[in-house]
Amino acid sequence: MRSTIQTCFRFLIPVTLVMLSPIPATAQHAASVRDTAANIVSRIQRADYEGDRSALQALHEELAVLRLPGDDHHLASRVRYWRGFALWRRALNGFSGAADPKELERDLQQALRDFEDSARHDPQFVDASVGAISCLQNLAHLSRSRKDAARASELVRRLVPMLKESRVAAPDNPRLLWVVGAGQWYNPPERGGGQVIAIATYKKGLELVRQQRRTLEDPLEPSWGEPELLMNLALASLNQTTPDVRAAEEYATRALTLVPYWHYVRNTLMPQIQSAKGKQ
């Protein structure tokens, strides 16, 4: 009997040791970095909606100093994406707040580099290209505003193939459609643009983002889009050749239902809509 008990213990002890063995340090580090990054991402998205450009700068730096595991390209791609996102949205908020164009350009150029780094770590990550395309669009706009047509043309030449590839790879990406619609709004019909086409693109993106909503999401995977598409639909409805003020108010109200603290929609766009409504 004693021999049988000893035999049992010889089998049980290694199993117990395996169960008690610690998680490898590399896995612990990756999990810790992911949790830290997820917390920063949440704060970036909040600061974007609040129009807090100082916070977006600081949060970009917080992500920049994270020590990432050298072999985790997926995590590296997502962290770099959100670094780019912070400065991209800092620039977009600056456009609506009349920031210094030189500062906007610096933000967009650094955001572009971050998005390109993200894509290098994960070439299949279309959202990195979405951010890069928008940065190039806005850099081209800044170049045109200072009468630098050659620089604007160069930037457009860079973004066109990226846009084509992204539309083939992810035609149903609602964030891509948000960026595509913005380009269509300013392009003439002979170049595939126009107000009607842009609004149709925004509506398609809105339908898609609602279909793609998931109950459990990785906080490092981009899932934004519905509030932004509602905002652009409100802006487009207000500023189209024949304004639809009622539609603009409905879209803006729905955007604020999703994000009640959205500074631009609440304090800039909605007053513009109410002013137009009062003139009817």
How is this fold's topology laid out?
Layout: H1 2-20, H2 25-50, H3 53-64, H4 73-96, H5 101-121, H6 126-145, H7 149-169, H8 174-186, H9 195-211, H10 226-239, H11 245-258, H12 263-278
Helix pairs in contact: 2-3, 2-4, 3-4, 4-5, 4-6, 5-6, 6-7, 6-8, 8-9, 8-10, 9-10, 10-11, 10-12, 11-12
Structural notes for this entry:
By secondary structure, this protein is mostly helical. Among the domains are: 49-170, Serine Threonine Protein Phosphatase 5, Tetratricopeptide repeat; 198-212 and 224-280. Helices cover 78% and strands 0% of the residues. The protein has 12 helices and no strands. Helix 2 (25-50) packs antiparallel against helix 3, helix 4 runs parallel beside helix 6 (126-145) and helix 8 (174-186) packs parallel to helix 10 (226-239). The protein is globular, with a radius of gyration of 24 Å. Residues 1-21 have low confidence and may be disordered.
Q: Class of the domain at 49-170 in CATH?
A: Mainly Alpha
Topology pattern, helix = H, strand = E: HHHHHHHHHHHH
User: What is the CA-based Rg, rounded?
Assistant: 24 Å
CATH topology of the domain at 49-170: Serine Threonine Protein Phosphatase 5, Tetratricopeptide repeat
SS-derived structural category: mainly alpha
Q: Which shape, going by the Cα principal axes? A: globular
Query: Total helix count?
Result: 12
CATH architecture label of the domain at 49-170: Alpha Horseshoe
Largest sheet: none
Task: Give the N-to-C terminal Cα separation.
Answer: 97 Å
Poorly predicted tracts of residues: 1-21
